[in-house]
Each structure stands twice: as C-alpha cells, then as structure tokens.
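quick q for whoever's on today - can somebody do inverse folding on this one?? i tried earlier but teh output was garbage lol. tokens:
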C-alpha cells in the first residue's frame, strides 16, 4: 500500500485519496469531494467522467475482478472509501 495517498491524521478526504490512487494522479490534482457536502457523489462522478471513466454503484454481492473503489461504514462509525482488487484490499487511505 502506498503512503503517498494516505489521509493526514484527522482528515476526512478518503474519497480524494482513493481517487488519486486509482487514477495515478497527484493528490493535489484531485478535488476533496467531501467539501462538496451533499453534492460529493455528483462531484466525484463528474471528476471521473472528465478523466474518461465512469463511476457506477454496485451492490456488495457483485464480484469484480479488476481494481475498483469500495465505500461503506467503518467500525469507527464513519463513512470510508478504499481501493480494492478482485475482492482484496489494495489501498486504504486511513492513516
């Protein structure tokens, strides 16, 4: 896992870190989607479209062989996003 795309302690920018990792972009080149508030998912989707990709949501029962972003709730009671590869954790932005 890369430390280059880790959240700073106390930061809530896991979407930004995961997207930057997934696209191989510098963290500064990716918006902090959390700052968009209730429009975070729309901003996330539009960012991926601008980079030639799409962002689709699938239920947890769908198995994906390649790399993908997964989000959900943590044991800490927060929402979180990570990068997965074929069902295995590839990168976790949490410090």
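ok took a stab at it. sequence:
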């Amino acid at each position: 896992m890369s430390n280059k795309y880790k959240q700073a302690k106390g930061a809530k920018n896991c979407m930004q870190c995961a997207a930057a990792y997934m696209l191989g972009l510098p963290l500064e080149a990716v918006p902090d989607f959390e700052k968009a508030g209730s429009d975070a998912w729309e901003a996330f989707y539009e960012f991926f479209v601008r980079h030639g990709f799409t962002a689709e949501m699938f239920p947890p029962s769908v198995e994906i062989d390649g790399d993908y972003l997964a989000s959900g709730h943590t044991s800490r009671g927060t929402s979180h996003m990570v990068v997965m590869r074929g069902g295995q954790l590839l990168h976790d932005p949490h410090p």
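fwiw The helical segments are 14-23, 40-50. also DSSP finds two helices and three strands in the chain. so keep that in mind when u check it
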